[in-house]
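Sharing a chain and its predicted structure for anyone who wants a worked example. Both blocks are below, sequence first, tokens second.
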Amino acid sequence: MKPWSWALLGVLLLARVPSLAQPAGADQGLYAYVGQRIASGEFPYRDAWDQKPPAIHYTYALMFALWPRDAVVAAADLLTAAAVAVLLVALGRRMKGRLADGGGGLAAILFLLFGNPVYTRLGGVRIRSQCETFIALAVAAAVLALVKSLGVGQDWAHGRRQDNLRWSLAAGCLLGIAFIYKYNALVYAALVPAAVVWLLLRQPGADVETTTTERLVFSGLGFAIPTALMLALFGLAGALPDLYEATVRYNLQYSGETYAGPAGFIRYLLTFPIGEARVDVLWLLGGAGCLVLLLTAGENPAFLLAPMWTAVACLSIAINGSRGLPQYFVQAAPALALSAGLAGALVWNRTIWPARVVLVALVAIAAWRVTPFDKAIDYTLYDLKRLEGRTSEDVYLSRFGGERSAERAEKYLALDQAKLGALLQAKTSPTDKVLIFGFSSGAYVQAHRQSASRFFWSRPVIVEFNAGKRGYGPQGLLDDLKASRPRLVVLQRNDWELEGIDSAGYFLKHGALSGWLRAEYEHAGELNVYDIWTRREARASGLVSRPSDSWHKSRSAAPGWQGARSAHSGTM
């Protein structure tokens, strides 16, 4: 890579620094809360129920241990992006061949430029440091280990058997790590036999010291190591049944909700890349790059690895379901960038300068038409303003959460969630348990409070997953609440639109839940989308006051408390 390329990569990374001002998103609040419970000696699923496999929760436990602020979410995302960019440069150097020099550097630039979360809604809050962010890093590292194990870019005749097997083991281990972030990442394991068979068949006499069987065995062993450690950890804690119910059964139900059958899955798999290419230039360039590399794989067999990686990433996305959630597509960004970078370098080195000018112009026009650069610049400057302290926290947070009204609100409202966290911290003690029945787990994290139930968010209860089975469904929630007797109960309104009912509506319409609440608690007021209920003896003892009394007056006097709702309610 040229010095100017490294400088450009540095500038693109610096452009992400203002995102450190952003709050953690709603999903990130789930991971952070479970991470908080892990730090307290508890176990995911048994003590804090979430559907994601455990790697993300332990990652967040480590992140918040190192830096217990929301900024750690954006910081981890930035560092992961930097690591992926370096891996793409290394992959490009290995796979470039004679005519694709510079492909790795171009891939890294495209990844950082067009893979920036800031182009998405709410400035990228929802997709930073998601499972797919770390899956992308693990798989990119695994692909590099794979090409090293196969001697791509080296003298095949001088491959060392010990090194080849060591890299095969590393590739499998990294793919195993991706798997325990999300089980749909299992499909990436197909890259190993596909690459091994393809490249060795295309290189007669290559590396005869290491057999295909040995490579596959060592890769499989590497994959098994993280999985075995995960099972051993939960087995020793007696939490394997909880792990299975949450991360296998629930996710099968969740994914299946979007497909009518196998035909629906295949239809989505074949059509969503086209739909993404219409609105995301990285998908457009990556798709075109895959076609170029497929046509030139005969000249350099290693070129086929990038389209293979892209295809497997698409399969992994489709397994998640057809909801089209933006975080699902993050995992494909490195593969698309590598395909586009290698193909771009290949075409550039084969064409004369007039054709190069046309090529650059076409890419620039496509990027300008589908990439919201204005939104990205606006949010970056807005984040920078907050980072420099030139705007208040309330005014800043009011922009994250979309349009709010009395009739309709969203699951994630950063300002309201922050104010709920402040309320919990001010009006309960560290030993008190509370229940937030909704999708605002970040308030637990901010207040350092423990949920009164392992169902610290409401959707598993609302969809009545495993209802009728001991410890699950509304009865399981009620049993937890009776045992823990929370100091406060918070019911969130207008949060699960697709389910046809919100958390507050479900709780108050359910006979047993509503009866328990009304018998032992009284409604103490509202905090925008939250209904606050206090335990009767807590009110009688004066430990908790109405939201409409002293605490409400103090919060309403804060900058932006009333005005923020109207001043910054637009969807960005």
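Comments welcome. The first strand starts at residue 433 and ends at 437.
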